[in-house]
Amino acid sequence: NQIFVLNGPNLNLLGTREPAIYGSTTLADIAAQLEVRAAELGLAVDVRQSNHEGTLVDWIHEAQAIGARAVLLNAGAYTHTSVALLDAIKAVTVPVIEVHLSNPHTREEFRHVSFVGRAARGTIAGFGARSYVLALEAAAAL
Ligand code: DQA
């Protein structure tokens, strides 16, 4: 009943990073909210963050290897660039749910493409920190 919550580049700076776009909630706050909701749903979350693309690839493989129930993935800017993450998602059977705080479709053109979204089970974007809780609820219902 393990859910991996993987966060990509610059998400360690949540809280102070462009708060007008991403809000003032920190990643630690999000992790705490997810732990509460996960406990209610009978799940356990493992919340991680890396600024390195290959580390995110390794963690997707690890989720598969340990038999995680789902992966919530906010790949940050790698969402829009990473064929390696797309291939990693395609290489595993564990469902990956794409998560974003902002709604990339309302932003710059280069954020309208998502490599992650091409293989994700689904996407939740635009609800700030709540996007993660909504994605966790979606994962619980899979
Ligand atoms: C983001 C959206 C991406 O376009 C951006 O590069 C991020 C954060 C979000 O959660 O809204 O780093 O994934």
TrEMBL record:
CDD domains (UniProt xref): DHQase_II
Pfam families listed in its UniProt record: DHquinase_II (PF01220)
Function (record text): Catalyzes a trans-dehydration via an enolate intermediate.
Protein name: 3-dehydroquinate dehydratase
Similarity comment text for this entry: Belongs to the type-II 3-dehydroquinase family.
EC number of this enzyme: 4.2.1.10
Annotated InterPro entries: DHquinase_II (IPR001874), DHquinase_II_CS (IPR018509), DHquinase_II_sf (IPR036441)
Top-level taxonomy: Bacteria, Pseudomonadati, Pseudomonadota, Alphaproteobacteria, Sphingomonadales
Native source organism of the sequence: Novosphingobium piscinae
Catalytic activity from the UniProt record: 3-dehydroquinate = 3-dehydroshikimate + H2O
Positions annotated as active site in the UniProt record: 22 (proton acceptor), 100 (proton donor)
Single GO term (MF): 3-dehydroquinate dehydratase activity
Domain of life: Bacteria
Family matches, as Gene3D superfamilies: Dehydroquinase, class II
SUPFAM superfamilies reported for this sequence: Type II 3-dehydroquinate dehydratase
Subunit structure: Homododecamer.
Binding site for substrate: 74, 80, 87, 101-102, 111
Site (Transition state stabilizer): 17
Record's keyword terms, sorted: Amino-acid biosynthesis, Aromatic amino acid biosynthesis, Lyase
Record GO biological process: amino acid biosynthetic process; aromatic amino acid family biosynthetic process; chorismate biosynthetic process; quinate catabolic process
PROSITE patterns: DEHYDROQUINASE_II
